[in-house]
Amino acid sequence: MILSKYFNPKIIVMLLIATVIFSCKNKEGNQAIHPFCASEYCSSEGKEELIDLYQHNKPIEKTIYFNVNCIVTSKKSPKFFKIAAKIEKLNKVFSPSHIQFQLLPIISHEPSTINLDEIESKKSALKLVTKNLEKKDALNIFIVPHGEYLNGFTYVIQENFLSYFNLFECNTSFISEKAWFNESTLAHEMGHFFGLQHTFGKSPFENTTREKPDGSNCVEEGDFICDTSADPNGKINNKCEYIGLSDAKKYDFNPPVNNYMSYYRNDCKNEFTAGQYASMNAFANKYRKYLSANK
After folding, report:
1. Residue 34 pLDDT > 50
2. For 83-136, what is each residue's pLDDT tens digit?
3. In three state form, how does the secondary structure of the chain look?
4. What are the tens digits of pLDDT across the range 196-230?
């Protein structure tokens, strides 16, 4: 009661929501420019939630649909990005997960010079770009000017995933105008949207994964999914083949170079595993159902 004299409860709630949102990001870096980028990871509590979800939930075969609200802040016209065709391709990729995307008919065009790196790092830039363009009942995808480091990022919660139902926030992804045209960034960010971690786990730096090469601790480390092999985020050749680590040793790793959730080159990545599809299905039906367009 004493606090209520000095603090507006509504302001306190808004500050708490902002704290959650801005502390929870997943980013994909542009390896052609910068080999690694900072990567958020679920907390220890979030880890336990994901492990429990993956171990005790069977896939629901009924397709769950999500409306997509697309906003273009690039100077280029929305027609340039062939958004409907891109969403159609995304639906083919996600079909085994029984997750599908429905593009809303109106695509907003709000040209801006604020690039992806600025949006990710500055709250003021984020507010300027989003400015009442997000919809609370849809997945918001912004196509924005390219920065120096990032291809895309998605706001997610790192723990207490049921908070999505209370916040009705964290339903926005950002893709750079250049990365929009590769075959992996959008799928990578949607993987994060539906709970997937990076294949290497917590740290993007070479050979820091805690998952053993033989997969014996695959449930507790890496991405907690056992059909994605342990990933040391090592070196690959121009044929997308793993060739080892900086010290020229392989340490018996056989990483998933072509997996969408890895940090290998975008032109190498073209698949999710059955385990990842099942995991996204479980996450969508438990934690993202508030956004479902199903009637």
Report:
1. no
2. 999 999 999 999 999 999 999 999 999 999 999 999 989 989 999 999 999 999
3. CHHHHHCCHHHHHHHHHHHHHHCCEEEEECCCCCCCCCCCCCCHHHHHHHHHHHHHCCCCCCCEEEEEEEEECCCCCHHHHCHHHHHHHHHHHHHHHCEEEEECCCCEECCCCCCHHHHHHCHHHHHHHHCCCCCCCCEEEEEECCCCCEEEEEECCCCCCCHHHHHCCCCEEEEECCHHHCCCHHHHHHHHHCCCCCCCCCCCCCCCCCCCCCCCCCCCCCCCCCCCCCCCCCEECCCCCEEECCCCCCCCCCCCCCECCCCCCHHHCCECCHHHHHHHHHHHHHHCHHHECCC
4. 999 999 888 888 899 999 999 999 999 999 999 99
Cα 208 to Cα 168, 188, 193, 286, distances in angstroms: 35, 21, 24, 31
pLDDT surpasses 60 at 180: yes
In the block, tokens 């896939």 appear at: 59
Strand partners, 26: 154
Q: Hey, how many other C-beta atoms are within 10 angstroms of the C-beta on 262?
A: 22
**Domains within the chain, CATH numbers bracketed:** 64-196+273-291 (3.40.390.10), 197-271 (no CATH)
Band (pLDDT 50/70/90 cuts) for residue 78 is very high
